[in-house]
Amino acid sequence: MEKNKWFQKSVVYQIYPRSFMDSNGDGIGDLNGITTRLDYLAELGVDVIWLSPIYKSPNDDNGYDISDYQNIMNEFGSMEDFDKLLDAAHSRGLKIVMDLVVNHTSDEHAWFVESKSSKNNPKRDWYIWRDAPKDGGVPTEAISCFSGTVWEWDEVTKQYYLHIFSKKQPDLNWDNPEVRKTVFDLMDWWCAKGIDGFRMDVISMISKAPEYYLPLSEGGCYNPTNGPHVHEYIQEMNREVLSRYDLMTVGETPGVTVEEAKKYAGADGKELNMVFQFELTDLDCNETGKWNTNRAHLTDIKRVLSKWQHGLYGTAWNSLFWDNHDQPRCVSRFGNDSTPQLREASAKMLAVCLHMLQGTPYIYQGEELGMTNYPFTALSECRDIEALNAYREYVEEKKCFTHDEMIKNIRKASRDNARTPMQWDDTINGGFSVGDPWIPVNPNYTEINASAQVSDPNSVFSFYKALIRLRHEMPIITDGEYTLLDPESEEHFCYTRQNKDTKLIILCNFSDKVIECPYTKEIEGGELVICNYEAPNSEKAPMRAYEARVYKI
Ligand code: TEU
Ligand code: CA
Fold this sequence. Notes:
By secondary structure, this protein is an alpha/beta fold. It has helices spanning 31-36, 38-44, 79-91, 110-117, 177-193, 230-240, 258-264, 298-312, 330-333, 340-355, 385-397, 403-413, 416-419, 450-454, 460-473, 475-479, 520-523, and strands at 12-15, 48-51, 55-56, 68-72, 95-100, 129-130, 151-154, 159-162, 197-200, 248-252, 274-276, 319-320, 360-364, 481-485, 492-498, 503-509, 527-531, 548-552. It has an eight-stranded parallel beta sheet, covered by helices on one side. The chain has a five-stranded antiparallel beta sheet with strand order 14-15-16-18-17.
C-alpha cells in the first residue's frame, strides 16, 4: 500500500480506556487491561485502535483535560505499560492512534499554572485572557459546550480566561507561534515512539475568528469553528510533523461543512486524512440541544450520509461512524433494543448500512456486541460533566424540564450511555473489573457479552467480523461510487456502489415490519454477499424486520 493510504482500507476500533478493561481491581480500566484484550481485537479483525486520551489528567472531563502530554494518567498505568501495549499491538498487526487534545489543556497543566501566575508571565499569551468589561459582566456572551459562559474569572490577575468546554479546560492560544511549536514538538515525540497516528480533538476550534470575542451587540459571532487560520495551522502541523511519518490522521471537526472538509481532508494530503462530521448525530437536536427524546427521520439520515458520500467522492475521504464515546449507543438510537431478536437484527443492519459506504469505518467499543444504552433512573448513576451541568442548567436554573423529563433525556442522549463498562462475560461486573466500577455496568451484561458472542457464528460480533473481512477483500467497498436509491422512503435505506468491474446493491430495512423487497429487478441473478438473517429463499422474498442484504451484480 502506498505510504499514507492504508487508512482507506482500514477499520478502526475506538477504545475508551477508562471503561474497557480493569487489570488491577480499582474499578477503572487501564493500559494493562487493554493489553490483555488485544487478542479479542485481533480476532475481530480491525486494523487500527484509537485510544481515547491516556495522558495525565485530573479527569474533569475523563482525560480530555490533559495536565501532562508526555506522561500517562496514574489510574491507567505507566509509560512502560504504554510501551508494552504498543509493542503487543504491533506484534499483532494492530496500529495505535492517539487522541490529541490540544485545543485546550487542563487548568492544572504547568503551562496554564504559569500563564495564570501573573499578567507578565512569558506564558500569559499561551491562553486567551480578557479584561472585564467596564460595565461589568463577562467579556462576551459566548456559551460553553458544557453549559454557561465560556469566561472564567481569575481573582489573582483580575482577568477572564476562555474555555469552550469546562472551566478546567482553558483554550490554548494557537495564534501564538510558541504554542504551535510546543504542540508540534510533543506530537513529534509521540511519533518517534512509533505510534501510528492521531485523532485530533475539536481541531476545527483552534483558530477563533475575532468576531468570536465580540459582544453580541457589536456583531459577535458565537461559532468558534473553522476559524480564519485553522487551515494554515493544520498545514503547518502537516509540514512540521505529519508528513515526516506514515500516520493516519482524523480531525474531530464540529461545525464542518462539505466544502471545509475538502480542505481538512483533501486528497492533496496537505492537512489530514479525514474528519468526523456531526451533521448526522445532530439531526435529533433542537433548542435544548441534544436534551430531548427526538429520533432522527430516516429520510434525513439518508440525505446527510448521501450528501457526504457525493460531496467528498474523489476529492477527500469520509470517516464513518454511528457512535463514539460522546454519543448514545447506536442500536438504541437508530435501531431497536426492545427485544433480543430486534436488537441483534438491527445492530447487524446498522453495521451493513455503514460498513458498505465509502470511507473509513469506526467501531466504538461494545458496538460489535450490540451493547445498548443504560436504563438510567437517577442522577447518581451519571458521571459525565456535560450531563451534570445540563441538569443544573435545564432543571434547576431554567426549569425547562422536570427531573423525570431530564432523566428520560439522559437515558436517550447522555454520553454516559457509551461509557458504561465493556461487557466481557457474564461474571460479576461483566468481567470488566473485580472491584467497584467507576460507573455502573449495564445490567444486561448477563445476556450481552463478548464471551457469549465470539464463538457464536450468528452473533453480532461474528457479523462485524464478516463485514470487516469483506472490506479487506473487496476493493469496490473502498473505491466504488455511491448512489442512493429512493430518498423518500422512511422504511428502507438502499444504495449502490459501482466501480469499473462490479456493482453492489445494499438493501437495509430500517423498520420493525416485514416489507416488500424494493428493487427485486435490480438484484435478480445477483450473488448474495451478506445477509443478517438466514439467506432468503429468493431475491423476491420480503424483507424481515431490520433485514439487510448486499448483492453483487
Ligand atoms: O468533543 C467535542 C464536541 O464537540 C463535544 O461538544 C461533543 O459534541 C459533545 O461531547 C457531544 O455531546 C470532544 C471530545 O470528543 C469530548 O469527549 C470532549 O468532552 C470534548 O471534545 C472536549 O475535549
Ligand atoms: Ca485499573
